[in-house]
Every structure is written in C-alpha cells, then in structure tokens.
Amino acid sequence: MSRLPKPGQHVRWRCQRHARALGWTRTYGPGPFPVRRIVDNTHRDLPTGVVVDTLLGECEINEVWLAGPAGADLAQEGAAEWECYSADVLIALDELA
Fold first, then answer.
1. CA quadruple 66, 70, 72, 74: dihedral sign
2. Contact assessment for residue 11 and residue 35, using Cβ atoms and an 8 Å cutoff
3. CB distance 69 to 4 below 8 Å
4. Is 85 helix (H, G, I), strand (E, B) or coil?
5. Which residues pair with 38 in a beta bridge?
6. Is 11 within 8 Å of 74 (Cβ atoms)?
7. Cα–Cα distance, 10 to 44 (Å, whole number)
8. Could you say which of 1, 24, 58, 69 has the lowest number of CB atoms within 10 Å?
9. Between the CA of residue 30 and those of 23, 43, 45, 46, what are the distances in Å?
10. Is it the case that residue 1 has pLDDT exceeding 70?
11. 0.90 surpassed by pTM
12. Model confidence at 83, in pLDDT bands (50, 70, 90)?
C-alpha cells in the first residue's frame, strides 16, 4: 500500500483475480472491507497486518494483499497491480476461478 489505512477506512483486494483464484473472495468476501486496526508485525519480520471485518468476522490480512484506503489513489494502484503479472498468469488465474 502506498500508505496504511486508518481505522474506519475501507480497503479492497489488491488483485481481485488473485484473491478469487485463491478462494479468498469466497472465504473472506469480495470487499471492500472496513479497517478495525493495524498490527505491527516487524518483530516477526512480516509486513504490517490490517485487521478488517470479513464474512468470517475480524481477520488480519497482510498489507501486501490489500489496496486502499478505498477512494485514495485507487486509480494509480489499480493500474500498477497488473504490471507484475504476465498475460499467461492472468489467464491461468481466470481459469482457476
């Protein structure tokens, strides 16, 4: 994320296709998700966790899988999210879903 969200803001999946292929949209929901709190995981050498309300209740999701806060820089982030995926990978993700 370009900046961490604050409690009360909303975040979404960074790559909806990837989340769908992994079953996360069925498990946690399609988003956007309201943010409850931020968890500093640097002591475990992990990226920041974002605790959000999902279909399963409150869940901590690693910040690398999320984009937002919703409404802030989403056009820029959305355009960049596909740069790391080749066309073959995108087709494979769609076939998995």
1. positive
2. yes
3. no
4. coil
5. 50
6. no
7. 26
8. 58
9. 10, 30, 28, 24
10. no
11. no
12. low
